[in-house]
Amino acid sequence: MIKSNYLIIGTGIAGLSLALKASANGSVALVTKRRIFDSSTGKAQGGICCVMDKSDSFESHVQDTLVSGAGLCDSKMVEKMVLEAPNRIKELINLGVKFTRKTNFSSEFDLGLEGGHTKRRILHANDMTGKEIEEVLIKNVKKNSNITVYEECMAIDLILDDNNVCRGAYVFNNKTKSLVIFEATIIVMATGGAGKVYLYTSNPDIATGDGIAMAYRAGANIANMEFVQFHPTCLYNVDAKSFLISEAVRGEGAILKLKNGQQFMEKYDTKKELASRDIVVRAIDTEMKKNGDDCVYLDIRARGRDFIVSRFPNIYSKCLDYGIDIVNNMIPVVPSAHFFCGGIAIDENGRTSVKNLYAIGEAACSGIHGANRLASNSLLEGVVYADRAYKDSLQFTNQKLSSFKLKFLKNVEKNNQSNHPEFMEKWNEIRNLTWNYVGIVRSNRKLLEAREKVKILKKEINDYYDNVLLNVDIIELRNIVCVAEMIIRSALLRKESRGLHFNTDYPFMLSKAKNTIINVISKGE
Ligand SMILES: Cc1cc2nc3c(=O)[nH]c(=O)nc-3n(C[C@H](O)[C@H](O)[C@H](O)COP(=O)(O)OP(=O)(O)OC[C@H]3O[C@@H](n4cnc5c(N)ncnc54)[C@H](O)[C@@H]3O)c2cc1C
Predict the structure, then answer these.
(1) How many A from CA of 195 to the centre of ligand 1?
(2) Which of 260, 302, 305, 343 is deepest in the core (most CB within 10 A)?
């Protein structure tokens, strides 16, 4: 058993940022299922929002976020996040993050523009912002003697005492293939999103929604899981695994076209390529279906070689690796699952409905994103909620907790039954199911069919899980089927179309916006 003041699960921007702060207040066990840098954070290209320019204003950033969120944002929380952004950005800079400046010697930052923003307010490190932030945070964590990092350690389930207070987590150590119990006064879920639940995704392999599934099983409220953001432009190439063509490329003038070179966005929105993501995604989906095409194209050629290579060095060289010279050719793109606006329901300080359990970052549903996230608000949400959770936790770190008995212990050492590699085909079944039945455009018939299919899959997977030697694949499989079920449940509960959720049977938006809250015991759909 490993004991600490804080147990933080996940090493993306949210988990690392909180660990650095919490270390001033006690010992931190930082658990991560692969290597420390494996995260969505490290993949983020576009940047992080903050009002920096004189022509911009806090009101305008708030307004853009609320418009994108289609009436479902928690406006108070949006305001707080936007106002706190400058301090959080200053902290990142003080830790060593280098955002791109206008020129090498300029004191002014080069601010990017992305879909849904009315002003340039995206701080970036060329087109590798997430990598820059992640590397700097990791460097600082490694220097900190109050933080112990446990790599290749995958949280399986939360531990609750008899009063349903969260006391720690069961963790599978993939190096030693053994179970480790982590106990702490404060437990934080910073496990990121769940893009891997879908067939096509921009997310890295770690994004299997583990934290959301764990919290659900522990009885936490889960909010707004129907709002899955599809990114409009993932590179369409069989060899490219989930490579994203950043929104910033459209921000810098790239045009969406059909294979014959015809533009189409003006038919769908006056903001054309810079309309919010849900509008652009549905436009692409409609055009692909109408024309029977496998993809559409993004054309940045008009900006010329010098600009393209210096502003988007990563995208330029990655595409070149796949034989696409974006200076001279259009880029084939398709939409893919990108971001979960929903997740573990939290309050303004990151507290969940389970005592002692916090959730921050993409795993959480804070109310910031409403029905559709505004581009580049999620890295910001990660640092803002890390700070809020840290400050809130200070009142609890010295609390006296009674001794407790472990409720169950999954025996990993004893092999009950050997694994059947063919069972892992269920991965593809689930990912195809979500893509086809609860994807960009939904209908009641498809959702009801999906509910029946997922019920059967979940039972098969849980039976298998109970009788097989634990490994990372089966733990993730159990989580993705759980997340798929939550998305379907939530989508069925929403009797309207709003933001990212579009149901052809309810093509209208209700006048009153309501969050969808589910938990493991709640009835309904
Ligand atoms: C390609 C791409 C580009 C993006 N671009 C931008 C952008 O420009 N701007 C922006 O604001 N947002 C962007 N996003 C979204 C943003 O990157 C994420 O929302 C954000 O980084 C999430 O941070 P996080 O700390 O919550 O989670 P992550 O960074 O995903 O970290 C989650 C961590 O939890 C660990 N973990 C998961 N499950 C377990 C488990 N069971 N046990 C132990 N550890 C576990 C993972 O290994 C990982 O370390 C992008 C996302 C992608 C995929």
Answers:
(1) 10
(2) 343
Report how far residue 73's alpha carbon sits from residue 368's, in angstroms, rounded to the nearest whole number: 5
Q: How many CB atoms lie within 10 A of CB 89?
A: 21
Instruction: Give the CA distances from residue 189 to residues 9, 19, 363, 367, 435, in Å, rounded to whole numbers and listed in that order.
Output: 5, 12, 7, 17, 26
Q: Is the CB of 15 under 6 A from ligand 1?
A: yes
Question: Rounded to an integer, what distance in angstroms lies between the CA atom of residue 184 and that of residue 180?
Answer: 13
Can you tell me the distance from the alpha carbon of 111 to that of 122, in angstroms, rounded to the nearest whole number? 5
Beta-carbon contacts of residue 471 (< 8 Å; ≥ 6 apart): 172, 174, 177, 419
Show which residues are catalytic: 277
Pocket test for ligand 1, best of 379, 380, 383, 477 (most atoms within 8 A of CB): 379
Alpha helices (runs of H) in 69-176, residue ranges in sequence order: 75-95, 129-142
CATH 3.40.109.10: does it fit domain 421-510?
no
Query: 154 CB under 6 A from ligand 1?
Result: yes
Contact 392, 351 (CB under 8 A): yes
Its pTM stands at: 0.93
Spell out the domain ranges in the chain. 2-191+208-224+344-393, 233-335, 421-510
User: What pLDDT, in 10s, does the model give residues 232-281?
Assistant: 999 998 777 678 898 889 989 999 999 999 999 999 999 999 887 888 99
Q: Domain 2-191+208-224+344-393 sits in which CATH superfamily?
A: FAD/NAD(P)-binding domain (3.50.50.60)
Any idea which residue has 């523009």 for tokens? Answer: 113
Question: How much distance in Å is there from the Cα of 12 to the middle of ligand 1?
Answer: 5
